[in-house]
Amino acid sequence: MTTNYQAQRIADELEEPVREANELARKLGLDPYPVNYWIVDNDEMNQLIAYDGFQERYPHWRWGMKFDRQQKTNQYVGGKAFELVNNDDPSNAFLQESNSLADQKAVITHVEAHADFFANNRWFGLFTGDEPGSSPKAAAMLARHAKTIESAIADTDVERSEVERWIDNVLCIEDAIDQHSAFVHQRIAEEDLDREDIEQALEGLGISDAVRREVFDEEWLEGQREGPSGESFPETPDRDLLAFLREHGKRYDAEAERAREMEPWQRDVLDALRTEAYYFAPQRMTKVMNEGWAAYWESMMMGEEGFADGEEFIDYADHQARVLGSPGLNPYKLGKELWEYLENTENRREVIDKLLRIEGVTWRNFHDTVDLERVRELLEPRAPLDEIRRDRLDELESLGNAVDHDALERARAGGIDVSRYPWKVLSYEGLAERHYSLVKPQNRGVLRRITQADLERVGRYVLDDSLYGSVEEAIADVDRTAGWRRMAEVRTSHNDVTFIDEFLTQEFVDRHHYFTYEYAHATGDYRATSTDATDVKKKLLLQFTNFGKPTIEVHDGNFGNRNELLLGHRYNGVALDIGQAKQTLARIFELWGRPVNLMTIRKEISEKDIEVARRRNREPEPTERGIRIRYDGLEFETTELDEDLTVAIEANDIDYDTKPPEWLA
Predict the structure, then answer these.
(1) Sheet of 596-604, strands arranged across
(2) What percent of the chain is predicted at pLDDT more than 90?
(3) Which of 37, 109, 155, 597 has the most neighbouring CB atoms within 10 Å?
């Protein structure tokens, strides 16, 4: 465990980097939540990871499982978590005591960017509300939930195992929410007739069991609860299954073999876990954006702005290489590359816009009349900006809004060490010019990749096409902040699905060598199938739409007029794992208390189909068949799905399929 002395020593060492990183982040245009930094040892970090970044959670076995998995991952797989930060106001960031100083600086700059993303992305605002000053207060909320569940466990009338099983039931479908809608606390609808009251009234009448079974049977009682109409509900498919169960569900009483009203503690648990599902949803919806955003600004501050000094830079380069070089679908790498591509394309669009306003230059003759190498030279930062030194401070005076003139005066008086923190004397505009993306060595090909389509797309909106008399005049008017301002706009409004959908282009795919691969039934192995951006995009979007999990909607809470629950799998070309689907239905049954049904579409490929496809060097075409799986608490039944219901769950134009047409043909 970290001793108080060790923690205090490290905290003292990091006091200046924390302060300066926050100031630099704000100079660069970020607006983060305040951040509290904590120093923790390896075991404490593993515990925080298990608790999803918080120090207090409700009692449940899964936290121990996650802790054990994380500990074994560190021990046997290698690597470690450098930091952990949560979405809260203030945010709390936990730094490993074993980090080197270069690592600590890297994670501090990384955290400041995360805190900016939390505070400004509107998908996080769906949970808190977008009103000014609203913030999640997550630590306090999770602590309240912990106490709620602890109280249920402490109740002598309730078995701990019963509480844990109820939690397991809810966690099994914790992603079954409408993450695209603002979070609202669910309130149970007022009912004219409560079933428990009816049952008590019948018992008071002294009616014989025979008459009661004949006249007031289970179906009649259920009908009273749902109202006299017997109509299906909801009117349209509902994605918030947890809210629907909270409002209309019951608990299944195994001893009585029938549904009963939920106990108050059961509704409280369902409320708490649904609230947490909505709280964590934006973090999962923006993983690529958020990690890429943090990696981008960390790299800017640590490398390009020299936050890592000369002795620390090699350690930092190794740190970043390990993070960006992790195998598999790496959200840090993909996100950072997309943000850089967005910045470059917006800066390029701004340059094209100015060049097309030179007298005599049109989108048709652009490549014949404009010297792009000369353009790149003119885009270089003005001389005093690229190397800020104490003996050159007077040269900055003439740079207008590129300079923070108050800070410049303090630097002249010796109050700012510009050899250590040159950025302090610059404004946002000056930093944008100092770090302009199109003149960085790795981006010098961006201007050369200007296509006729790019030129025509910008040129059709250029009306004042004789504004400048030369390339020099046009470039002098280029807004160097265009890329950063566009990045800030996208940071505010997008999530991973919309981010990838809009900005993953063929140019990006070709530049970074992305491709798709699929399992080939004919050969029994995986094959690269496409480098087309549309196919790559579909493959990626599948992994981010609804957190990469099947989308399940409530279609009817009174299916067959028997109070059965009818769910529909929004089929997008990827079939469900039927075994897992049945296990999930069994869990939902305990939350509904009556039979549950699931509609889906099953893919079927026969051995004969595979053999024929193999001989023709093709991939077999599966047969798709709609089915309905029903569970009544005892057994499963699978039947053919009516055609109208099959159509109701099929994907539409806005859903995504992974398989490119005619792949492996």
Answers:
(1) 552-559, 564-569, 596-604, 623-631, 636-640
(2) 71
(3) 109
